[in-house]
Design a protein that fits this description.
The chain is of the alpha/beta class. 34% of the residues lie in helices and 22% in strands. It folds into two domains: 2-118, Trna Endonuclease, Chain: A, domain 1 (3-Layer(aba) Sandwich); 128-189, no CATH class. The chain is elongated.
Length: 195
Amino acid sequence: MLENDWKLRRDGPLLRDALCEFFECRYGKIRFLEEKNIGKVRADMLAVLPDGLLGIEIKSHSDGYERLKKQTQGYDTFCNLNFLCVGSIHIRAAEHVPSHWGILSMTVREGVRFEVLREPVENPNCKLMRQTELLWRGELAAILKSQNLPRYEGKSKKFICTKLCEKLPPDILRPLICDRLFERDYTRYRDSDPM
């Protein structure tokens, strides 16, 4: 079974690329953030969609479920949709994640194949405030300006995020957050996270 464990393979980056390609074909416009800290957990992948965030947790054959409960709570706080991507050994993984999570099976024998075992549904636990906190101060300022809101100079980032959530309805704010994340120049901060 180890030959099918893509995290341990030398061609792991190619397999991760195949996973990204699967989601690109499924959702169209998408931007991936790998190994992103969300709250107290590290997301394997966080994908920005035009109208929300998609969490992608990957369980390879060598992974267990010990940390999964804490991980799902982290993803659920930030992401509108979530997928658990599993190898064949984790086919029963649905028992370990909430029912709104999607399950994607990935096999690596004779090419990379994907099968959606369960479709994700809208996450009822997602917090718009937490999504807003992913933005940098300059991005928050751009949203404030675009919506003709006060600049809140000298106020904390948390204060500004709270005001945005109070002043703008979710169907307006969420796409603005996603747009900022799409436009972010991540290459400027390879060594540090300016949040």
